[in-house]
Amino acid sequence: MKIDLTQTHDVEGAYQSIDWNDIRLKYNDDATKYCFDVLDGKQIAGYITKLACFRNLQDLKRQGQSDFPYHYDMKEVRNTLKFASIVPDVDLHKPLPLMNWQKFILAMINGWKDENDEKRFTDIHISVGRGQGKTQIAGIQMCKAVLIDTLSYTNKDFLVTANTSDQSTKLFGYIKKMLEAVIKIEPFASLAKESGLDLQTNQIIEKKTNNKVWKISYEADRYDSTHNVLAIYDETGALDTYDRITDITDGQGQVKPYHQFIKISSAYPDPTSPFHQEQITMQHIMEKDYSREGDNSLCLVWAQDSLDETFKPDTWEKSNPLIGLSHSERKRRTDNLIKQRDQAMLNGTLHKFQNKNLNCWLKQSTASYLNLKDVEKAVYDDFKIDHKQCYMGLDYSMFSDNTAVGFAFPYTTADGVHKWHMMQHSFIPWQQAGSIEAKEKQDGLPYRELAKKGYCTITGHPQGIINPEEVYKWILDFTQKHHLQVIFFGYDRYGSYQVKNITESLNANTDWMIQDVKQQTSELANPTKFLQESYATGKITRFDDPVEEKALLNAIVKEDKIGIQIDKAKATLKIDVVDAEIDAMYQAMYHFEDYGLINDKSHEVERMTQKQVLDWFNNPKSGLLGDDYYSD
């Protein structure tokens, strides 16, 4: 039966439509029991957790099918949980009984195997609220990989990493303490002695097998020298790009006996984080239950289903599963979280509580220029641009930035509402990145595919820099091809003689009104605010363009005494598109006003070609003073 939850999101309904008696009888492990408890409503859980449980139960049914070459190894699950039961909590210095949700994580990572009896899941995404023991799970998995999984292997690498040296040192220290305790217990004491296990300050090495656990931080940028059986990345949600992450996965390639990459994190303020985007992608994959896409990726997320649940403490077990440890623990943890929430409200930092404690990604950064919901609802792909009036803006790139041309098409709906359709075209340089492949990884956009759809042009310059002639030719060809009536062309001339060449060429070959828009708050505040408010009130439409969308979501607000401008949180983020569209909106915002360029006769001569000016002088009945002036 084909099950597609992308529209209904009714995972409980899909679950209840299936007979599970065969699975209930065959599998009695705690991980499978957890899945049934979640979907039977005995265990509180969020939507993505329910999806993961449903996927697991469906996979148990799928075993043996020709398009599903995986099996659930019950012996491996038992051995994993047996090992986990002796690994101590580093704070209490003694083993703690694992809850079923924790056993579920370990069973999924270890129990599912492929046709070669190697671990099925190579890419693992784990997200849960702060203080819920996700680091302990990661530590248990690393200890198992070193002491058990690679017992008869030599020259194997294992990686412990995080964004900063302090973060990676913390996780490494956690694992080191776990190993110190475990190797006091037989048979691991003898195994450690035989392998020459040496717990050093910055690495753990088995001297006789040359297996090593490395500690490297993201900021050190040394991943390309590692080939890891298991790599664990802590606080992955803080990353704004995965450009170096690929060095880890590329290095794992053909590693034997298996390879796995585990990313763990709670939510962070920036919703454009690739960790969050990965979570969204995996949610869609799990909703398409019938598809075999993503069969080697595992996504386990404990989070609230909406920000409304900030004020529903009885739902907080969704993101804080340790609440369910016992009745006394439920009360203690819930009361503590309520105090933290209330203090955050007083301090104006509620978003931080929602991020870290409730594991909720906000729809946009707290400083975001636009709301994600407003950007998404503006999509209108049926808009036709041919023969339309438009306003244009140009933001020419410096160094590694993209160059963007922005368009604003004013139009009126059938029911009389004035709107503006925004669009863009970007020119993509790759010199500083080194290649277009590296540029795509750096910006998180598949530019080559997007170029085929017309959203961008990858520079044709052999050195990967922007070619002003190419930009000029594209602008001229595009406006002529679509017979656009360009009313205004605004640009930022700052720091680039190439812009002068483009605008002077356009001035010589078109009848457009071309103006330098000074990039200061006094000039930009009004169009910047107008564009922002027009998105919020539904007066902006746009094509479903990923380049435009990412730029709109990257933009943050910079405010001074005069008004607002847009800015970006980091130099690597691209907002060129928004700059170009604001330059276009500099005059487009007045289009429906009596004093707008298209309606204000005082600008009529400025928009005329030389022939039109000559005709105007030669015709006594045409003039800016009106027909009454000539009536006598």
In CATH terms, the superfamily of the largest domain is P-loop containing nucleotide triphosphate hydrolases
CATH topology of the largest domain: Rossmann fold
**Number of separate domains:** 4
Q: What is the averaged pLDDT score?
A: 90
Q: So, CATH architecture of the largest domain?
A: 3-Layer(aba) Sandwich
For this structure, what is the CATH class of the largest domain?
Alpha Beta
Determine the fraction of residues in helical runs and give it as a percent range. 25-40%
Can you tell me the residue ranges where pLDDT is under 50 for at least 5 consecutive residues?
623-632
Figure out the total of helices: 22
Oligomer: single chain
Alpha carbon gyration radius:
30 Å
Identify the strand order in the major beta sheet: 7-8-9-6-10-11-5-12
> Per the principal axes of the C-alpha atoms, what is the gross shape?
elongated
Sheet of most strands: 8 strands, mixed
Estimate what percentage of residues fall within beta strands: 15-25%
